[in-house]
Write a structure and sequence with these properties.
single chain; alpha+beta; two-stranded antiparallel ribbon; 5-stranded mixed β-sheet
């Protein structure tokens, strides 16, 4: 059993430093303000450009009026023979038709047209009052569309820039938080391993000194022997767990798969754990399907999975404990569910319970022994069996349930 390496179930989430949050929020606010200022500047400049282009169109309208008026007021000077100094005679030329004047104006100024009624308050009338000069709506609409296209483009570019920069900051922020979280968990792991090693070693040292420095009766010696064997078993389990995790991380964890009927095997594991933790200490109840359920599995590795979960149920539950192990079929899969009425798991910790070194609190103050590798190893072993393991909890104080799903195999034929 790897019972002393729980942990994921009550795992912590390292909180990022407040200074990091302040810096991130400050940069975000400054960036949004700068982009907002830049968009506002684009809107203002585009408005000025629209006004300048509109004035140019209006200037063309004035030039069209001037051109038409000069044609109407063409002056011809004729000398008067009876006058020594001569005289000036103004004659009104033959006025061209309105259609001819319209064509002349539109050829010279395409943005101007003649209309019978004014379209804008400042539209001038022709010198003879035959019509009004106004700006065509199409050029004005084109200018307005160009302005809003420019504003939209500027806004889109600004929004994309904000999104890209903030997305990069979020990635950096999350990466930094993960690194800080990993460092915290590694520090906690070091403290936990130190404690897990120091306690049995110190106990063995005391019992060894007692055996060699005192005269003890047979009953006392047997009792001390039993305690020393428990300490040695604890050390062996810790070292074995560490080795298994190292093999899993390096990809060298070898499983010896063979057909395994889960019913009898699971009953023996539960019985062994109930005896090891103390008869009745788990409040263990085994519920299994009457039909034979077979899987391809490594019995020793899969035993580590169930033993870790039962050990967690024992360590993270107050007396009287109630632990239920359920075995059932689900189509092409087999389900093993280990549920308890213990401390439970908060919602924010559920996605991280199978991370290595992940535990709640600080190793120097945590009361429950462990290194934060138990559930990480559970996840690795189940995954290498082609299965999946999940955890469910309604929150602190409502217990938790771990569900192992393994591919179901047909019953092997008798040789």
């Amino acid at each position: 059993m790897r019972g002393h390496c729980q942990d994921g179930g009550m795992a912590p989430r390292a909180q990022p430093l407040p200074l990091q949050r302040i810096i991130f929020l400050s940069v975000s606010v400054v960036l949004c303000l700068q982009v907002g200022w830049w968009i506002r500047l684009q809107i203002r400049d585009s408005g000025r450009l629209l006004e300048a282009r509109t004035q140019a169109l209006r200037a063309g309208r004035a030039q069209a009026w001037q051109m038409d008026s000069l044609k109407l007021l063409a002056l011809h000077s004729h000398p008067d023979p009876s006058s020594q100094g001569g005289s000036v005679e103004g004659r009104v030329p033959v006025v061209p038709s309105l259609e001819e004047r319209r064509q002349a104006i539109q050829e010279a100024y395409p943005q101007v047209e003649l209309v019978p009624r004014p379209m804008a308050p400042d539209d001038p009338f022709l010198l003879d009052g035959a019509a009004f000069l106004t700006l065509r709506p199409a050029p004005l609409k084109d200018l307005e569309d160009q302005r809003w296209h420019a504003v939209f483009r500027a806004s889109t570019e600004g929004a994309f820039m904000v999104f890209a920069v903030l997305f990069g900051f979020v990635l950096l922020y999350r990466k930094l938080s993960e690194e800080l979280d990993l460092k915290l968990r590694q520090r906690n792991f070091t403290s936990a391993v130190t404690h897990e090693l120091k306690t049995p070693i110190a106990s063995l040292k005391v019992w060894t000194e007692t055996l060699f420095t005192r005269e003890l009766g047979l009953e006392q010696r047997q009792r001390i022997r039993g305690l020393m064997e428990k300490d040695l078993e604890r050390l062996n389990e810790l070292v074995g767990n560490l080795l298994d995790v190292a093999r899993a991380e390096s990809g060298s964890l070898v499983l010896h798969l063979a057909p395994l009927e889960l019913g009898p095997w699971l009953a023996s594991i539960c019985e062994s754990m109930d005896h090891r933790l103390g008869p009745g200490a788990l409040g263990l109840k085994l519920e299994r399907s009457p039909e034979p359920l077979w899987v391809d599995a490594d019995p020793k590795a899969l035993s580590t999975v169930v033993e870790n979960l039962l050990s967690n149920a024992y360590k993270y539950s107050a007396e009287p404990r109630q632990t239920t192990v359920t075995l059932d079929g689900d189509g092409d899969d087999v389900l093993i569910v280990v549920s308890d009425q213990g401390h439970g798991i908060s919602a924010k910790d559920l996605p991280r319970v199978f991370h290595r070194f992940f535990r709640v609190g600080d190793e120097m103050t945590r009361q429950v022994a462990g290194t934060g590798l138990g559930l990480f190893l559970v996840k690795e072993i189940v995954t290498r069996h082609g299965g999946d393991v999940r955890v469910f909890s309604r929150g602190p104080g409502f217990g938790s349930a771990f569900t192992i799903r393994l591919p179901r195999q047909a019953m092997p034929e008798a040789p």
